[in-house]
Amino acid sequence: MNSEQLAWKIRRHAVEMSHISKSSHIGSVLSVADIIAVLYNDIAQFDPKNPHCDARDRIILSKGHAGAAIYAALAEKSFFETSELATHYADGSRLSGHVSHKGVPGIEFSTGSLGHGLSVATGMAYAAKVDNKQHHVFVICGDGECEEGSVWEAALVAYHNKLDHLIAVVDNNRMQSLGFCDDIISLSPLSDKWKAFGWNTICINGHDHNQLRKAFQAALQCNDVPSVIIAETIKGKGISFMENDILWHYRFPHDGGEYENALLELRAQLPEGLKGQYQKGVLE
User: Fold this and answer.
1) According to the model, what pLDDT value does residue 277 have?
2) pTM of the complete model
3) Are 199 and 219 in contact (CB under 8 A)?
4) Per CATH, which fold does 3-283 belong to?
């Protein structure tokens, strides 16, 4: 399976999961799907048979409301059965709406209250440096989340301590829960802010897998300073009627047109190598 196939599966699973559970945040999941696919398929080091291996890379989804994307990636990477994804957000399920590490192999830290992930990742990277460990710590943040002061406190600490094994990714879809970031608290120019805090700053198209791979590789080779990849994305990417529409931060695809049309659009984007594996509305 290549990263493009994994990204498609993440989107397909997520639409199904949000529809079944009537849950929020499908727009955020779709914007981050390519980032997560490349990270889990081509970059991060882990072993699903030994999820607590000390040498593993740590991955934290700070924008925890997009947890369906992480769950889908973990299931496709054999941390647990894909059939369990149908329990997402259900009462008693371990696959909670905002990503949770409780009982879920491959999840490092429970998130959902925005602004915490980078601080935790900074602590993990600092501990690894003190212990002379070689693993990397990846943290995926939202752009709206970067309005939180704790993000910038962590950025200062990471630069001061030369945490070059820390790599942040900002899912820069330019939207947050109730509108466009620039209309609420402007982050522009976001790259200049990270550069001013001393970080190695890389700006790319967050849906281009080749650019993502090159950005991650460049960050992995950076010395003495932490790196941030500012990934320009589209909220709702892959479903035309969801793209750049704030409605889909909280709405789920309903029966009677939305869900069915979302599946039709995804089916039209089916990557080579997956054709013949999927039937209408059924994930085999």
Assistant:
1) 73
2) 0.95
3) no
4) Rossmann fold (3.40.50)
